[in-house]
Amino acid sequence: MVDARGVQKHFGALQVLKGISLQVKPKEVMCLIGPSGSGKSTFLRCINHLEKVTAGRLYVDGELVGYEERGNKLHELHPKRAAAQRRDIGMVFQRFNLFPHMTALENIIEAPMQVKRQKKSEALARGRELLAQVGLAEKATAYPAQLSGGQQQRVAIARALAMEPKLMLFDEPTSALDPELVGEVLDVMRKLADNGMTMIVVTHEMGFAREVGDHLVFMDGGVVVEAGPPREVLSNPQHERTKSFLSKVL
Ligand code: ADP
Ligand code: MG
Predict the structure, then answer these.
(1) The pTM is what?
(2) pLDDT tens digits for 64-81?
(3) What 3-state class would DSSP assign to 124?
(4) C-beta of 32 in contact with ligand 1 (< 6 A)
(5) Which parts pass through the membrane (predicted)?
(6) What ipTM goes with this model?
């Protein structure tokens, strides 16, 4: 589902990704950890077309992200095709970025109606299903300001799911939450993983990584330092930098 081959990202003279190679198969969950500034968000943003890869190849579901290959040359993808690729990828950020002037249900049906031209009745029915799936059936008419951080984040997940994505990206989805609200969001993510969603999760929740992740990738300074089954990486890290990082977060 995701195949990164030597992915690089430069911001002017600053190289933030220095050749990331990794693969995520359908239905797998990859957890991505690493110190602040190591390039985790930038990598997710490249997958989701928020940044453009500057060298290397990045494929999602077999398609080159943002470019097309003609002959041996890469050409930027037509914006319409880039938008179509992006539509199939859901992303949830650290800060719940719900539309404040819309109810939970309105937030969820907005993109399916505007982007996918779904009929309102269909979008509403699916929206209610999704709210139930994240445990918020009774909050359809609540505005974001009337919801807790954990509830807002669950609406954000439902909103991403409303586009029927084939891949979900999570960028520290629980980092801005009060500790007692973290579990309810992780539970929703765990259920999603159990139901076969392909996911890349940037997180500091090592319990989640251990129990839900198929792979754990430790990034530092724009490179993958170490990757493997979560239990192995967590209990028997091979690299000094991994050991040092884990000793701070575990
Ligand atoms: P992480 O998510 O692991 O904390 P980021 O991907 O956010 O790391 O950032 C990695 C590096 O890239 C940081 O040094 C950050 O300052 C830099 N960076 C991120 N976005 C930009 C940008 N738009 N322009 C310039 N530098 C950026
Ligand atoms: Mg980040």
Answers:
(1) 0.96
(2) 999 998 888 889 999 999
(3) helix
(4) no
(5) none
(6) 0.98
Q: Which residues of 49-59 are buried (b: 16+ CB within 10 A; e: fewer)?
A: bebbbeebbbe
Relative to the CA of 45, which ligand 1 atom is closest?
Answer: 6
203 lines ligand 1 (CB under 6 A): no
Closest CA to 217 of 72, 2, 14: 2
Which residue lies with its CA nearest to atom 26 of ligand 1?
11
pLDDT at 72: 83
Ligand 1 pocket, residue 222 CB under 6 Å = no
The ligand placed nearest to the CA atom of residue 32 is 1
Look up residue 63 and give its two tokens.
């398609």
SS3 for 164-222 is: CCCEEEEECCCCCCCHHHHHHHHHHHHHHHHCCCCEEEECCCHHHHHHHCCEEEEEECC
Closest CA to 62 of 94, 23, 7, 27: 23
Task: State if residue 149 touches ligand 1 by the CB under 6 angstroms criterion.
Answer: no
